[in-house]
Amino acid sequence: MSTPTKNGIFAEHYLLKERFSIGKISEVWRAEDWTSEGAIVAVKIFTPDIRLDNFSLEQLSKEQEALASLDHPYLLQPFRFDIFEGIPYLVMPYLAQGSLSRKLLEGGPLPEEEIAFLLTHIAGALDYLHTRQPPIIHKQVSPDNILISDNDSYLLSAPEMSSSIRNIMFKATGNQYSPATAYAAPELFRAHPVHSTASDIFSLGVVLYELCTGEVPWLGNGGVSLLKGAEVPYLPNPYSRILSNLVRACLHPDPEKRPTARLLADEATYYNEYGKWKTYGSFGSVTAESIVYKKRSPLLPVILITLLVLGALVAAYFYVFNGKLPDKIAATFSSTSHTAGQAAEDTAAGEDTRTAKKIPTATATNVNPKKPVTDTTPVTQKTRVTRQDPAPAPAVKKPEAVKKPPVQRSPSYPRPTSLEAYLKGMLNEEIPLEVRDQWKPAIRRYFAPDAIVYATMDASPLGSFGVAEFMDILLSTENASISVENIIRDEEDDKIDELNVNLTTVEATLEQDSLE
Fold this sequence. Notes:
Strand content: 15-25%
CATH architecture of the largest domain: Orthogonal Bundle
Largest sheet: 6 strands, antiparallel
Structural class: alpha+beta
CATH superfamily of the largest domain: Transferase(Phosphotransferase) domain 1
Number of domains: 4
Shape: elongated
Mean pLDDT: 80
CATH topology of the largest domain: Transferase(Phosphotransferase), domain 1
Number of strands: 13
Distance between the termini: 78 Å
Helix content: 40-55%
Number of helices: 19
């Protein structure tokens, strides 16, 4: 036959029933395999309308022979490779659930536990390829090349051919070869593109982002957007910060800073076993740059400064006047705080005062001429005494109103005074993260520049870390305590060269208590 058609016989053994995928250089059919009692298989036919030259077919055959030795439980291997009338084809298992693209289209974004389950399988398959000698680069990690088996496992399609053979096929069909832009790493858009294991990790990062959001990042422009200054996106809620860190690490613009497939598989395996990510793992670290603090109101500093100034003025005022108010101010406070009877007495006292003030001019007409004018002096003094009597009482009480706090102040957190106190404080979740993050410079001063921290968790080795890295681990660790086991100091400056610590999780503490 010249062209595959429905219900036609291909390569004398396969009855083509349905074409469910078609691309620029190949098409995939669901077919009956007459060599296996009519078993349903998937037949992938390359360049069905074009006949390749003998040299290209020989190169393709050699590549398929080398790939035939691959064996991994989550790598989808073809049953057979052959060439029929100049048309190369692959016979593969037929998986009724189809590809990850179909699952995403029908069901939308996946939950976090399902993403961890998928990552265990796909990262494991990539690790198998990347650790071959020489390493095998997949180059086509995408939802279309991730299939779902009958037992719900995720399988990565095995690499089919090299870029050179693929390019030959594209030219033969009149198409220009280019990798799927949405999943291509930034280094593939440079003047001298180089495929590497890190390029596969970038593609996997795009797949993971798509599984969480339903969309590919950067509007499908792939790594070329990073070359133009685009930022690596975060995952939206409800996905965890650690998963977001993991995906962003895969999408890092620098290939050298992307994680390995083995590390991704290990992290995902831990999640599948314990139902959570490693808080102290490679993607659990928290730095000040990755924290978005709540922006404070710009009026808050102004209000605080104003209150401090007013408080200083009040303190100075009482210091100058020895805790007493002047008579006029005290009288004013007194007139507003006394009862009605006291107010009446104050009014009467005020009338006496006004009378006393008029005595010098009223002497010639109202006072007996036989009495000397100086007799009015005692009257004036008596009136003044009456005027001053009520003043002291309210003058003492009024400052109490000033002592009341005008605003609710946020709690203050005392700064630790020893290294061990700092380390324990870094694990104290009751202290805000931004406060603990500000302790880093003080902690670094205890250590030599190249100091090493050896850590264990629940008596199992955790690893050796630099001081800055270990502080990030403490900030991201939840429900744990720390104890210092050993300290080695430099003899010259007494700085710490080595520190041995043990982290104990709440789960381990509860388990130990139950055993006791």
